[in-house]
Amino acid sequence: KHRIIMDVDTGHDDAAAIVLAAGSPEIKIEGIVAVGGNQIREKTLANTLNVCQHIGLDVPVFAGQENPLVRKRVNAGYIHGESGLDGPHFAPRTKLAEKERGVDFIIRTVMENPGEITIVALGPLTDIALALILEPRLKDAVRHIVTMGGSMGMGNATPSAEFNIYADPEAAYVVCSSGVPLTMFTLDVTLQVTLDDDMLSHYRKMKTKTSTMFCDSMNAYTEACQRHGFDYPAMHDPCCIAYLVEPEIFTMEKRKIDIELKGELTYGRTVMGFVDPTAGSQVGVTADAPAFWRLLDRAFTRLP
Ligand code: BDR
Ligand code: CA
Asked: pTM of the entire structure?
């Protein structure tokens, strides 16, 4: 079983990643930290609590950082809406966030369980960078960091940069240069797993509490993506969970990852090194989409 900490900026695809993790018996979620990203931290935290409560996921949820390390805050409300998770309706919230700061929870949990904990980072890397700065031994104690971010080709926040990296490039730099074991799913691979009309109507027919939330959220996500020139929305963040559950779904390449911090037009771009078997990081290359959907189907059967 993978013991994971999720760091999320919930968000439509973050919510799908929480569903996939909660419904996968290979995964044990130790806690979830909400960072500012798709929307301001107050909203991503509320969305995360709502999703957990809705699907009956009883794990501690923590507030991560509100602001990027250096740059001015940006968000992706143009995709995820004013709330950060427009679409689904949630019952009044009773679930509360923990008092402990998200970054402290990450450091404490990893250091108390050396070699055991995988961090799944699905938003800007602010919390992870800060944890590595405050506790340098974290890099050897953490089992693995799996993150969604970056692009070898076009970006989605700017022509050069993918949103999670663009929203905190300095944090991404800290993580990518730390030497921590790192797996990155870039747009090049996550855009291979898109939810088309057939898949959406397949999930509509399930009519469970969790699948209904998913479909309501995907309706809003689809509309927003289509306004921005994409045919169908991509399952960016859930790719990281699917990789832990069934790594064979993806092909990977070992490459060094650098982050551009100085370019006027390329700020926040991920610059991948040549394929190098000795590199400490790997990036996803291809995805078997039908195999991904089989995992999501199974997750729905295991949740309310
Ligand atoms: C990433 O940015 C966010 O909007 C999504 O949740 C995903 O983590 C895709 O670029
Ligand atoms: Ca995200």
From this structure: 0.98
